[in-house]
Amino acid sequence: MALVLPRVPVKGIWGSTSFATQARCLYYLTVNLNLLKLVRMLPFFSTFISGLGELVGRWLQEDLLNVKIDALSDGLVIFETGTSSHDVGKIRYLNNCFVLISKYGSTQLITDVSAAVGFLLRDKGIGGKLRQLGAIKGGSFKVIFSSENRTVSVDRDLLARLERLISGETGLRPVRFGAGREFWLITRHDGIVLFGLRITPLKKKTEEGELRLELANILCHLSGPGKSDVFLDPFCGSGSIFLERISSFPYKMAFAFDNNVEKIKILEKKVSWTKEKIKIRVGNALGLFDIEAGSVDKIITDPPWGHFQAVEDVDEFYRRMAKEFSRVLKSGGIAVILVAREIELDRFISEFKLLEKYQILVSGKKASIFKFLRA
User: Fold this and answer.
1) Interatomic CA distance for residues 308 and 263, integer angstroms
2) Across the strands, what pairs with 300?
3) Which residues fall within 8 angstroms of residue 193, CB to CB, at 6 or more apart?
4) What is the model's pTM?
5) 195 has which bridge partners?
6) How far apart, in whole angstroms, are the C-alpha atoms of residue 246 and residue 271?
């Protein structure tokens, strides 16, 4: 951070400068030096939806202060930033985020969780790293072990030794339930072992067929949301995308449609906290008669994939959908659409330009994210 001071003549220490000028100089020094103390680079690591490394890397550079990405691989990013851990933990397009305490595996291939715990216990520098975290007096913690995105258990003796180490260095007490903090030890297929303090708030469990919060956020974020947007989700279902758009991003007007009456009723209850600038309707996305032609800036949606919903002719369904999207979107408008991977949506949309495409997994099933520009 550059230290910007007022231009003053120098004569001795203060010379003939006025008292007011000296006071201003002291003020600038105090403010800037305090800011320098606050901007301390902290190490973090986070998991995210596989296939979206390009997006995550780009957004972290845009959203964080003085960010330095140390490693970016499939579903994992390790980085440093001057942004506070509180704010990093609130990033909604990341699955789980941690303050990085230790990283192992650059020279040793460690894939077994018990072996990773032993390696951690032998680390002479781990105590100092734990002490740097600070502690909440009377606070509690638990240790969670993860291997290949699955939580696993370890030998009780190893767990007890690790708990004593953490407790002794931080002043926190180990508990099995209701812990105030979570320390995670994660092993990956590439032999990397990560030990960190989880800073992501607990997320509510998703219902069947409901998109995870981080995926809904990614779809909204990818559209380039703005405060003048008229936004539409014509297949709103349980409302994951719609709710994320109106709660986390600015907009001018938001529309949600679905042909399932019960889902619309449930969504209306979920948005009881606001009635401003939103319209929720029972309707057919292939005939959006309530929406004027060329009136929508952004469409963000997750239409039926044809696997689980009754869609007789998938190709015809998507052709009609594309025609209706083309009608309601403004020239220069954006459509972000999540579909099954084998649905090559670009075949059906002649009046759109494909800007970006990403292949991901949704609940273990192959999927694609398309971002189109209305020509």
Assistant:
1) 16
2) 336
3) 103, 104, 105, 110, 116, 119, 120, 185, 186, 187
4) 0.84
5) 102, 185
6) 9
In the structure encoding, which two tokens stand for residue 118, read together? Answer: 């032993």
Encode pLDDT of 117-174 as tens digits.
Answer: 988 999 999 999 998 886 556 689 999 999 888 899 999 999 999 999 999 999 999 9
Fold type of domain 42-198: VC0802-like (3.30.2130)
Place of tokens 């239409």: 303
Contact between 329 and 296 under an 8 Å Cβ cutoff? The reply is yes
Specify the CATH architecture of the domain 213-374. 3-Layer(aba) Sandwich (3.40)
> Are both 42-198 and 213-374 of the same fold?
no
Helix, strand, coil % in the chain, rounded to nearest 5: 30, 30, 40
Q: Tell me if residue 320 falls in helix, strand or coil.
A: helix
Half-sphere exposure of 64 (CA within 13 A, CB side): 29
Say whether pLDDT at 100 is over 50. yes
| d(C-alpha 336, C-alpha 359), whole Å | 13
The full set of domain ranges for the chain reads 42-198, 213-374
